[in-house]
Structure formats: C-alpha cells, structure tokens
Design a protein that fits this description.
The protein has about 180 residues and is mainly alpha-helical. Helix content is about 95%, strand content about 0%. The longest helix has about 80 residues.
Length: about 180
Amino acid sequence: MGFMPALAIGAQVFGTGISIFGAIQEGRAKQDAANFNAGIQRNNAIIARRQAGFELEAGELRAGDLAEQGRFLGGKAMVAAAGNGVRVGDGSSIDISSDIRARALRNISRTRRGATLAASGQLARAANFESQATLDEFQGEAAAKAGQIKALSSLASGAGSVATSWHAFATKIDP
C-alpha cells in the first residue's frame, strides 16, 4: 500500500478518534451545565425555605404588635369610661372591653393566617426549585449517556469507513 492510501486511512482513524472524544466531551459539558443549574435551583430552594421562616417570624411580630395595641386601646377605653363617670367592670364598660378584645384577637388571627399562607407559598416555591434541580440532574445524566452513545456511534461509523477504505485500497493492490 502506498503512502497516500495509508495517509487517508490514518486520517479516517484520527477523525474517528476526534469525533469520539468530542462526543464524550459534549456529553460531559452538558452534564456539568445541568449539574450547575441543579445547584442553583437547590440554593433557590434554601432561600425560599428561609423566606418562609421569615414570613412566619414577621407575622408573629405583627401579631404581638396588634396584641399590644389591643391592650392599649382596652386600657384607654376603660380610663376614658372611668373619667366620664362610668363604673368600670359593669355593663357597657365590659361590652366595650370585650369588643376591643375580640377585634384585637380577630386581627391577630388574620395576621397569623396571612403569615402562614405566605410561608406556605414560599415552601411551595422551595418544592418547585427542588423538583427542577432533580430534573436538571436527570437531564445531565441523559446528556452524558447520549454523549457516550454518540461516541460509540462515531466509533462504529469510523470503523466501517476505515474498513471500506482498507478494502478498497487492498483490492486495488491485489486484483
């Protein structure tokens, strides 16, 4: 076999090797990118869970402020009633005090419920981020496997081309 046929076959072998290497690297790069994205999603989930805790804490602080405000208004109403000659602890003064207390409790309950709903929304976001992270990881694994399959395909195709070229050159030499 002459120099040119050997060079042609060598180039086919080299090209096949490069194609195999490229397919494997492509799969790895896609897997790395997917794993990076999964990491971002997991960090977002951590942030969302922390935010849920902050929502609950802020709700409790607001509820505490409302309780204090209710006690202040109840006390202020009793002082005003006493100042106007109303006997505190009887009749309408008890009704006023009960009404203020009931309103304060309702506002506290609403505040806590709002904080719970906001926290639940953040926890749902965290779950979505976790799901996306898992999906990203699966896509990365699939990309890596696809790269390996593509590499095997390149190997088979390259081997076939080399065999065909070898046969063609061999039949020209030995008719």
